[in-house]
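Progress report, Aim 2. The chain analyzed during this reporting quarter is listed below.
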Amino acid sequence: MTPENPEKLTAEPYDFSLVLGGPLYQIFRRARLSGSTLELLHRRVIVISLFAWLPLLILSILEGRAWGSGVEMPFLYDVDVHVRFLIALPLLLVAELVVHERMRPLVREFVARGLIAHSARTKFDEAFASAQRLRNSVSAEVAMIAIVYGVGVMLIWRTHTAIGVSSWYGTAAPGQLHPSLAGWWLGCISLPLVQFILLRWYFRLFVWARFLWQVSRIELKLVPTHPDRCGGLGFLANVSSAFAPLLLAQSALLAGSIANQIFFVGAKLPQFQVEIFGLVAIMLFAVVGPLLVFIPVLARAKRVGLREYGSLAQRYVQDFDRKWLRGSGAPDEALLGSGDIQSLADLGNSFEIVRGMRSVPFTKEALIQLGVFALLPLLPLTLTMISLEELLGRLVKVLF
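Predicted structure tokens for the chain:
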């Protein structure tokens, strides 16, 4: 039986999900690992995580490399592998449900809020349909699989992933890794699985960025005095925080890799400053970068708003001046309680809102919040530089 088309599963127009659709989604549904709207999350997390991690444990035990002194890095001591498959991989799956639930009503808001001019509705519909087609693309996911195996497995895995010590997954000869049985499962099944899901996520972000860019190119009816100080586009910031699990997962992958370098090679955390801050910057740009396409639109709306509301304010204050200061008003009209004073104040507030319009549809606080999520998995690594007792002692001194 052919799975239902995800577009037909929603009754509302413009009900768009960034993660519903595509071959992997259909495989999840056929395997009873997902419902039509990403139900059964716990089942996906358990089955997929164990599929990637459990064979590695079993094969390592059979080869005598799960613990003990047979190799310098036994399986149970490998921080990277446990973080990768038991923390980062589940977070990537959790992120799908979070983004799906937060994004479904988002695209509809462009129409519901009257932001799309009537003359631009056709172009908006075309952008919406194009995003759905690209999200569901079979060729895109096939290309990702080719990249994962052609580049990740054939070129990188056996030449660049070994950390230079004998491990449960193989021994490193000069320039190449000689895998164990567990190592072959790691390199051919487990790692490609995580890499594919992560690469699929960044493809989804590309779909989202492409859709927003197309929307930014059509006529938008922004209102400079909107209280969100983004002309009515402030609702777009709501989706950025939904990507927090994705940021946590990507950062956890880096933290696990750094942890192995520290524990088994003798590296120090400060040696990875470039990698840490570079990855955080890239992740933040991947999440909030798509919203930057509205900078020219918001800048233009602010300029027009300042000009139009400036002209309106000029006409009003001139009338106010003539009426109340030059004596052109009715002589028996009382200033106290007059609506003119309140209108003048309201006009001033409106003009200040226009002046305070942001050039991007997100706040500095939202960016800082995402940055905290991106750095959170890396914080435990600071304990490699300072003992927990010393850290707590310093905190007590600061607080008390």
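The chain has one domain: 7-300+360-399. The radius of gyration is 28 Å. These observations will guide the mutagenesis work planned for the next reporting period.
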